[in-house]
Amino acid sequence: MKSRSLVDLTLSNLNQTNGEDSSSFSAKKAFNRRSFLRNSVVAGAAVTAGAAILENVPSALAEQGNGHLTRGDAAILRWLAAAEIIETDLWLQYQELAGTQDNKVSTIASQQIPGYPASPTGGNAPYTNAVSQLDGDMAQYIHDNTEDELTHETFINAFLVSKGAPPVSLEQFRTLDSSSRATGANRIPRLTDLRKLTVDTTWWTRYRSRTGNPDLGDSFAPAVPSLVVGTHPGIPRTDDDLNDSNFLQAIANTAGFHFADIEVGGSSMYPGLAQRVSNVEVLRILLSIGGTEIAHFQTWHDKAGNAIPLTNVKDPVTGVSVTFPDLTAAAVPAVGEDLQSNLIMPEPTAFLSRQLPVCSIIRPTATKGAAMAALQGFVNMNIFAGQSKAFFSFVTRLAQEADDAKRGVS
User: Fold this and answer.
1) Does a structural domain hold residue 360?
2) Range of the domain at 385
3) Is the residue at 251 inside a domain?
4) Is residue 10 a part of any domain in this protein?
5) Whole-prediction pTM value?
6) Looking at the domain assignment, is residue 409 inside a domain?
7) pLDDT by residue (tens digit) across 362-398?
8) SS3 readout for the chain
9) What are 223-273's pLDDT values in tens digits?
10) Number of domains making up the chain
């Protein structure tokens, strides 16, 4: 499978570049790969604080649906639970620094993640202000997106338990010492790293194209080409990153485009996998949660267009430069629609066949390899730098099993 080879290649590069232990806490344990893959779908679930939520799922819920899940439906839900846990780990880091600082999100997170503080951090005022340049309501949107992802992972795992299927835990992989050292960040082990991002902005141009569709083999140019050259922090690494206002704004702009990059994957993944579901109740879950992911993407798509124009801003630590074009001026006829910032509604384009009329759609929605494509999207962001081989093996297997599901096959 081509997508698997890409994940394997990226894993090899990460190990060579970062060293498997360079970004991990010393307490990281070695895993027996074979026994791990066989048993760790449920490992850790009983020792997490979130297990209490799952234990309270009423057994009667299992009688309200259509009986036990097919193997394929369970595999799809397990992968989606893992994807939501990964998204939660990303969003919590943004929430701590730039989200609305009530105790709602932190309380929920403390019930699901062992050792997560139940009190809000207080945020990081300079970073929050830089992010708010994209929209005055960014703090509330970050807060709400984070809360949504927390509820998604809890609900999917609880539904699996209610049907007699094992839930998914990634707690054994929460080992990265990648937390920001800036004011407002919790210093806890993470699954992901937001300090060295590569951000794909081709979603911007593909949603504006009136002829192209990735499902039909088309490719698209990035809206911000420099975000795929080198790596860029999406959060301040330390308070030193707050000193240069241009560089701080570049970090906030990077975050703004990364927000949409996170959510565009879910917008496509849910409809892609829905085409493989057998149980109507499971289909309802995918359509309902998938719709929320699309709402998230639409919001971040809109806000990214307000990124403050910056030219050749250099990272004082890595020396990598980034440029953000003025997308609000892209309506000039010489520039055309491919970059016009207010075109946030999906432009009509080719769908299913170029012989059919154009249609405004989510794209891509092809079902083949949908889960692996979503995993590859995460990998391409470089958020897993320093993660273990066991982690990559585990999430790759979950994604492959979801992609192997077939409608109507028990």
Assistant:
1) yes
2) 2-404
3) yes
4) yes
5) 0.87
6) no
7) 999 999 999 999 999 999 999 999 999 999 999 999 9
8) CHHHHHHHHHHHHHHHHHCCCCCECCCCCCCCHHHHHHHCCCCCHHHCCCHHHHHCCCCCHHHHCCCCCCHHHHHHHHHHHHHHHHHHHHHHHHHHHHCCCCCHHHHHHHHHCCCCCCCCCCCCHHHHHHHCCCCCCHHHHHHHHHHHHHHHHHHHHHHHHHCCCCCCCCHHHCCECCCCCCCCCCCCCECCCCCCECCCCHHHHHCCCCCCCHHHCCCCCCCCHHHHCCCECCCCCCHHHHCCHHHHHHHHHHHHHHHHHHHHHHHHHHHHHHCCCCCHHHHHHHHHHHHHHHHHHHHHHHHHCCCCCEEEEECCCCCCEEEECCHHHCCCCCCCHHHCCCCCCCCCECECECCCCCECCCCCCCCCCHHHHHHHHHHHCCCCCCCCHHHHHHHHHHHHHHHHCCCCCC
9) 999 999 999 999 999 999 999 999 999 999 999 999 999 999 999 999 999
10) 1
